[in-house]
Amino acid sequence: MDCTVEESEIRQVVEPIPGIRGLHFRLNQRTLRIDGSDEAVTAALSAIRKAGFAPEAVKASTGTGTADAPAYGSGYARYGAALAFALVAECISYFAPETTVWKAAGMVVAAAAIWLAGLETYSKGLTALRHGKLNINALMSVAVTGAFIIGQWPEAAMVMALYAIAELIEARAVDRARNAIKSLVDLAPDDAEIQQPDGRWLRVQAAEVAMHAIARVKPGERVAFDGVVTKGHSSINQAPVTGESIPVDKEPGSQVFAGTINENGELEFRVTAAAANSTLARIIHAVEQAQGTRAPTQRFVDRFAAIYTPAVFAMALAVAVLPPLFLGWEWLTSIYKALVLLVIACPCALVISTPVSVVSGLAAAARRGILIKGGTNHENARLLKAVALDKTGTLTEGKPKLVAFRAWGQADEAQVRRWAKSLAARSDHPVSKSIALGLEGQTADVDGFTALLGRGVEASVDGRTLVLGNHRLIRERNQSDAQLEAELIAHEAQGRTVTLLADASGVLALFAVADTIKPSSVAAVAQLKRLGVTPVMLTGDNTATAQAVASEAGIADARGGLLPQDKLTAIQEMRVRYGPTAMTGDGINDAPALAQADIGFAMGGAGTDTAVEAADVVIMNDDLGRIAETIELSRRTHAILWQNISLALTIKAAFFILAVFGGATMWMAVFADMGASLLVVGNGLRLLRRA
What is the spatial order of strands in the sheet that 370-372 belongs to? Predict the structure, then answer.
């Protein structure tokens, strides 16, 4: 099953069967999932066989719907023999005496070549003609039969042999794109070392490992499951899943993903997802689903081919009949030209030009950690004119950090650091934790620790009563002055949260905490601008914080204080103002805006079910630069799509003219048709080279 025409043939014979609930075709994998009762599925398989196809069950061991690549060795042997017979037929035609015996021998040899090379073609071609369909097999069957009948049996044999070999070469080239995702399937190992109840380590098949089992991965091995590290330190290459170019350090409590590569130390981890439900498995499933959908250009080509093929068949019929009647051409010459037209009329190069390019683009994106859900999203990303960016976790790290410290007045800097760290370390508040992590040195003993609700904490350190609290607490203690107020206003204008350390005499130090911008955000925003895409920041944080972060990132339009419904309104306004608009978020809080946007990007989708389900495009790590890469890849894919369509149509148009008014032969037509197919396939595969 190679094209939409053959899909239609199968659909026609299967859909009317009682008990069939649904048919799910994936031409890119040559697979069909049939939803229905056992009796209905059995009847469907019988109907498919009668239609000239040979259905085979997909091996369950792959864990996905990706079919294994077919074996080509037997095909090459059979078609090689057909080519040898065709050459013998040509030699008999050119060199043997013009006698009945030699002519009969030549016809027999030619028929043998046609039988060896064209059995499958004739089977599918006759089935298509019975159902009133005109596919490549029908066109070739008519053309070769016609050539044989009018006495061009050597050429008929050679055309069928060359066509079969070219089809085989093309199938191998196409399978490279179709099976691009299969390389992801092979990332996760089939087995893993699992700790047994008695403490022994035993290598077990991955499919048999239960949740919460303890697995071990040695240096250089691939991780078999998603999990959480329980013992050991190492660096893991996560590029196969997240696209990150630099290995990520792992320690107890860190998350690991199936298919990633352990670089150095040995790790033990607790399995958190079965092999069939790992992040890698979900990526594979989502990409396969995406390959099963048609991009807008592909739908256009399919509709065009449905009109084009019957039109060319009618044209060939006209060339066979009208010139002898009205222009005085010889009947055999006119029929021969019509048969050449049938061969070159094959829409194969045209129809195959789009899915190969789209699948290559999807696979190239997946290798970079970009999960694009559907050919439509892949192709439409090139149209984006604006991208709405969430602040927390997208532009920024999403974790508060200590960004500024200042000892106030005559306070000793080392002493106040020690006191502040001692108090902050006892608090569970995120700001206090950030201060404790940001300050170096030892802590002191703390007595009488008390939380001041909504204000801070109070305790005794080194015999001195201290408070660590917010601006409000210091005002209530009447310990603020004009200089301090000016300092606080300056920090708050930058979106920072200020905490102050004070004793009975006054303020001793101030600490500014902020959600810091990611190092990659500035470059990512600049890259979007270079592509002509306007970045806009939408956040629930206050306007001052929004403006400060946006200014640092290089974003001119920043909107703060937005509730989820406000983000939805902002997306609608951006679509009117700029045009097609994307939204980035975590796939949960920003769900309304993600749904409203033309394309929704979920950041940091590795290990997150909701992100993979909610968005149109999932960036498996937190790299904002992948959005610009998605747009660039979409533009390259679209350009290659139209290069392929133009190339296929130009070659066919040139040979139409040659066939009617020049000396084009059936050989030339086969080479032109299959050459065009191989050219568009090779052009589409260029997208995989830079993945």
Answer: 370-372, 617-619, 599-603, 581-585, 386-390, 534-538, 557-559
pTM score:
0.66
First vs last Cα of the chain: how many Å apart?
A: 28
Strand ranges (E), 76-164: none
Closest CA to 389 of 614, 602, 613: 602
Tell me how crowded residue 529 is: count the other CB atoms within 10 A of its CB: 15
Tens-digit pLDDT profile for residues 34-77: 988 989 999 999 998 887 788 888 764 434 444 444 554 556 78
Domains of the chain: 4-57 (3.30.70), 73-180+288-360+636-689 (no CATH), 191-277 (2.70.150.10), 397-517 (3.40.1110.10)
Q: Which residues contact 529 (CB under 8 A, 6 or more apart)?
A: 535, 554
- Contact assessment for residue 10 and residue 1, using Cβ atoms and an 8 Å cutoff: yes
Set 226, 302, 390, 586: catalytic member: 390
Q: How many CA within 13 A on the CB side of residue 634? A: 27
236-270 pLDDT, tens digit each: 887 666 655 567 888 899 889 888 889 888 999 99
- Which helix (H) or strand (E) is 206 found in, with range? none
Per DSSP, helices labelled H in 131-251 are: 136-149, 153-178, 182-185, 239-242
Helix axes 100-130, 136-149, angle to 10 degrees: 150
Closest Cα to residue 44, out of 18, 6, 67? Answer: 18
d(CA 233, CA 241): 20
Helix (H, G, I), strand (E, B) or coil at 179: coil
Q: What are phi and psi of 347, to 5 degrees?
A: -85, 15
Could you give phi then psi for residue 604, rounded to 5 degrees?
A: 65, 50
Which residue numbers in the chain have pLDDT < 70? Answer: 2-5, 27-29, 59-75, 135, 166, 169-187, 239-246, 283-302, 305-306, 346-353, 586-591, 605-614, 667, 690-691
Amino acid at 230: T
What is the reported pLDDT for 614?
A: 66
Residue 496 makes CB contacts below 8 A (sequence gap 6+) with: 403, 404, 512, 513, 514
Asked if 583 contacts 596 with a C-beta cutoff of 8 angstroms, the reply is yes
Q: Write the single-letter amino acid at 410.
A: Q
Residue 580, phi then psi, degrees to nearest 5: -50, 130
Q: In the prediction, which pLDDT does 429 show? A: 78
Looking at residue 66, its pLDDT comes to 46
- Angle (deg, nearest 10), helices 666-689 and 348-367: 10
pLDDT at 63: 41
Active-site residue flag, 390: yes
Residue 170: partners with Cβ closer than 8 Å, 6 or more residues away = 348, 352, 674, 677, 678, 681
Strand partners, 654: none
Amino acid identity of residue 537, one-letter, is M
Q: Which residues contact 330 (CB under 8 A, 6 or more apart)?
A: 324
**What is the spatial distance between Cα 427 and Cα 411, in angstroms, rounded to a whole number?**
23
